[in-house]
Amino acid sequence: MSKPLVVITGASSGIGAATARLLSAQGHPLLLLARRLEKLAELGLPQTLCRKVDVTDRDALQAAVREAEERFGPADAIVNNAGAMLLGRLADQSAEEWDRMIDLNIKGVLYGVRAVLPGMLARGTGTIINVSSVAGRKTFPNHTAYVGTKFAVHAMSENLREEVASSGVRVVTIAPGAVETELLSHTSDEQIKQDYEEWKKSAGGALDAQSVAEAIAYAYGQPQNVTIREIVLAATGQEG
Question: Could you tell me which residues are beta bridge partners of residue 130?
Answer without folding.
Answer: 80, 173
